[in-house]
Design goal:
This protein is α/β, with parallel strands linked by helices. The protein has a domain of 89 residues. It is 29% helix and 23% strand. It has nine helices and twelve strands. The strands form two sheets. An eight-stranded mixed sheet has the order 6-7-8-3-9-10-12-11, sandwiched between helices. Strands 2-1-4-5 form a four-stranded antiparallel sheet, covered by helices on one side. The chain is globular, with a radius of gyration of 21 Å.
């Protein structure tokens, strides 16, 4: 175990059974299919990919909101699949989530002061008048003030509600925040404000973060490392600057080419090309094609691509699952 790694995800899988016709062979939706990554202390690790690739399922597995089909998730050198009692309570305090929809994440019948007071009461962090002071302090951290205490969620804009959700996540002084598409439900003008708030939290609090998004511009701004997912698997991972400067996997290039006005250069091996944005649709996670899952959409496919599934291995400073590269 490495003490510098706060979270270690090892070959996790999550399969859901799919209803089929009477007498038909049982099928499985492979939402997450053998994913491994590490989140270092005081860093932001981003998961990116198209809708349905398994990003949010990983978030719920890390938070222990779903049970693993197989694999291990290690938090601070403890396997979270077996923790119970006091250890589970400590884990719940140490790992918090910021959801995609801030309105759905807040109880519409609960005043903000009550919503933000709950974590202090549940975890016995503060009591009495001290709670109100701590709540006001939290609101100040996220750019709000005491005037909002008696209001209800419907009285706020989407950006203000997300600030409140972030304040609630910060209430218990977590070591890890899982942010699951925290900007996608907000207007573009508000997204920048929340992104700047997350950046400030990153700089000042020392909290690590698993940041889930399909917006590569946001990921480039906030993250230290990136993992690109496709059909439940990681196809490429590396430091953010390296991955954006020289993407290796053809699917990563497809994602980058779809981002407006995003400057990057390709350093291919071998040959130069650019994947068209209008490639065919992604296959379903129930009937994943044999071989490399991306091969039906990849213009660089060759011999082994439709038969052998490439393993994720080191290629320079990055890791990539592609037959075009020699990995180790």
């Amino acid at each position: 175990m490495n003490p510098d790694k706060l979270l270690q995800v090892r070959d996790i899988k999550k399969y859901f059974s799919v209803k089929t016709g009477f007498g038909a062979t049982k099928k499985w939706l492979k939402a997450v299919d053998g994913v491994s990554f590490d989140v270092k202390k005081e860093s932001v690790f981003a998961l990116v990919g198209e809708s349905g690739c398994g990003k949010s399922t990983i978030a719920r597995l890390v938070l222990k909101l779903l049970d693993l089909t197989s694999g291990r998730i290690i938090f601070k050198e403890k396997d979270i699949s077996v923790i119970k009692g006091t250890a589970l309570r400590s884990f719940r305090r140490a790992v918090q989530i910021v959801f995609q929809d801030p309105f759905a994440a807040l109880n519409p019948r609960m005043r903000i002061v009550d919503a933000l007071s709950e974590p202090f009461k549940i975890h016995n962090i503060a009591s009495g008048s001290e709670i109100r002071d701590r709540v006001v302090e939290l609101l100040n951290k996220v750019g709000l003030n005491a005037e909002v205490l008696s209001k209800y969620p419907h009285e706020f804009s989407g950006g203000q509600r997300q600030r409140i959700c972030i304040a609630r996540a910060l209430a218990v002084s977590p070591e890890l925040i899982v942010a699951d598409e925290p900007l996608s439900a907000l207007d573009v003008s508000i997204q920048a404000q929340i992104l700047n708030l997350l950046q400030e939290i990153k700089k000042t609090s020392g909290i690590s973060m698993v940041f889930i998004s399909h917006d590569l511009r946001v990921v480039r701004y906030l993250s230290d490392e990136v993992a690109v997912m496709y059909l439940g698997r990681i196809v490429e991972t590396g430091k953010t600057d390296d991955l954006f400067a020289a993407p290796k996997h053809p699917y990563t290039e497809l994602l980058l080419s779809s981002v407006p006005k995003l400057k990057y250069s390709f350093q291919h091996a071998p040959g130069e090309f650019r994947l068209p944005v209008d490639s065919s649709d992604m296959p379903g996670a129930v009937d994943v094609p044999p071989g490399c899952p991306f091969h039906p959409r990849c213009p660089r496919r060759f011999g082994p691509c439709d038969q052998i599934s490439p393993e994720l291995g080191k290629s320079g400073e990055s890791s990539v699952a592609c037959h075009l590269y020699k990995t180790s």
